[in-house]
Amino acid sequence: MNKVFNARSTTDEVLAGIDLSGKRILVTGVSAGLGVETARALAARGARVTGTARDLAKAKRATAGLDLDLVELDLASLASVRACADRLLAAGQTFDVIIANAGVMATPPGRTADGFETQFGTNHLGHFVLVNRLLPLLKSGSRIVILSSAGHRREDVDLDDPNYDRGDYTPFGAYGRSKTANILFAVELDRRLKEKGIRATAVHPGGIMTELVRHISEQTLQQLIVSVNEAARAAGNPDHAFKSIPQGAATSVWAAVTASADDVGGRYCEDCHVASIVAAGDQQASGVRPYAVDPERARALWKKSEEMVGEAFPEA
Fold it and tell me: Which residue numbers are catalytic?
């Protein structure tokens, strides 16, 4: 019988008794926080981990003592994304798991090197191109884990104005759109790949104090916590409790190697379980909005993403 884990479970608990010797795993964003912990926990079980980072010097310091390979990757530049993919493809070594962990949160208004709104371009489009280009390195039995967030509940994607060319920009609204895009990407990716035995899933790590909050003022953060707690109380739930970094990374490694692929494929997971679908207006502190797992919406985002990056990834 499978063990049952929860919001307090850690990476070491989720991976207890699992031998990953001979497995190769790619983790984006290993210069801090969840990425470092994810890489550490997987490498400790014998996996050969390749980590990516925009700042390789920072990543080397953050992962000192870990035996892993580092590759430069700036998700806010498609030139960098394609160069990273080309380097990995040239090496020709397959991966058993890709964990799209890197991202930014609640940034000021800005654009990526290619002119995309910063959060949508970094969190979604960068990974959209990277993962699709690396698919030749995946085989049957492989998994792709895309990190999303409960922040997706703030806003659906806007396929008519993804870069806020017309709409008023808000840091958390843009973050919500990018995190919804992460889930929709996993839904469509799983649909396209499952007949090949490759599954994709999206995960919410939970609330963790990492470098991800560096763009959020202390005042705004406190207001956010108050808002979250009010919603939790309205739903009859306890106040929000921040997770430790090992607890935050647990759902990523659980979905990557512990959970049943059929259970998590095409789904949104949180606290080491598959989340329920909750309608707009539902004040539950957990769960996924229907628009984020809508297969038609996922196909539409895929088409729009291809148009934006100028690259098509047809179904094989």
Answer: 148, 175, 179
